[in-house]
Amino acid sequence: MLTKRIIPCLDIKDGRTVKGTNFINLRDAGDPVALAAIYAEQGADELVFLDITATVDERKTLIDLVRNVAHTINIPFTVGGGISSVADVSALLNAGADKISINSSAVRNPDLINELALEFGSQCIVVAIDTRFLNGEHIVHTHGGRKPTELRTIAWAKEIEERGAGEILLTSMDTDGTKAGFAIELTAQISASANIPVIASGGAGTMDHFVDVFTTGQADAGLAASIFHFKEIEIPALKGYLRGNGIEMRI
């Protein structure tokens, strides 16, 4: 049985880690380099770094910050935000990222997924899906969750796999920051039909929420932010709890 992964997420704005609820009301959560070091030491399996305003501000991801984080940690490191070309990805991988995550640029130009997978290999291409339930359907959003698209989430998840993505990072905007639990039903739907790993994001508040997303939700990884940033749940305790519930973890 494959081990499940625990992934802290660093949402970055103006060089600081921030966290909000339903993608708004952001509050400061600390220095990203210091947090990254703590999570690596605590046994996080991977780290995700999202420059959440890069696309909205029409600028590139903060390369120097990526380089500083990469020098500090010894676990796989995914970077997203403002990535729209082969050159962008090359620069981030050269700065120390192991994988990159695209969202808005993939929706705008789906062929970019194929292009990046061909150039760098599917194993380092993560496509993020920010989704909200609107008018009875799960709808893909872009620009840090600000813009709804015409894409249906489940169909889009299938398309990005077919185009060569190596992983799906699925964030429910409805549950994000609520600590009421992951979007289990949607996660299960996408996980059941996907042949690539699905990272579930948005809504973690208790250890049992991770049990649910790994069992009922069939996710390969659980991503969370505020519960780790504000020390509500410690990663070693979480992993121990999950193992006690029959879920394979790397300790």
Automatic annotation (TrEMBL):
Pfam families: His_biosynth (PF00977)
Active site residues according to the UniProt entry: D11, D130
CDD domains linked: HisF (cd04731)
InterPro entries with a match to the protein in the record: Aldolase_TIM (IPR013785), His_biosynth (IPR006062), HisF (IPR004651), IGPS_HisA/HisF (IPR050064), RibuloseP-bd_barrel (IPR011060)
Pathway(s) this gene product operates in, as recorded in its UniProt entry: Amino-acid biosynthesis; L-histidine biosynthesis; L-histidine from 5-phospho-alpha-D-ribose 1-diphosphate: step 5/9
Residue ranges of coiled coil: none
Annotated EC: 4.3.2.10
Keywords (A to Z) from UniProt: Amino-acid biosynthesis, Cytoplasm, Histidine biosynthesis, Lyase
Reactions the enzyme catalyzes: 5-[(5-phospho-1-deoxy-D-ribulos-1-ylimino)methylamino]-1-(5-phospho-beta-D-ribosyl)imidazole-4-carboxamide + L-glutamine = D-erythro-1-(imidazol-4-yl)glycerol 3-phosphate + 5-amino-1-(5-phospho-beta-D-ribosyl)imidazole-4-carboxamide + L-glutamate + H(+)
Subcellular location: Cytoplasm
Its job: IGPS catalyzes the conversion of PRFAR and glutamine to IGP, AICAR and glutamate. The HisF subunit catalyzes the cyclization activity that produces IGP and AICAR from PRFAR using the ammonia provided by the HisH subunit.
Record's subunit section: Heterodimer of HisH and HisF.
Family membership: Belongs to the HisA/HisF family.
PANTHER family: IMIDAZOLE GLYCEROL PHOSPHATE SYNTHASE HISHF, IMIDAZOLE GLYCEROL PHOSPHATE SYNTHASE SUBUNIT HISF/H IGP SYNTHASE SUBUNIT HISF/H
Protein name listed in UniProt: Imidazole glycerol phosphate synthase subunit HisF
Source organism of this protein record: Spirosoma utsteinense
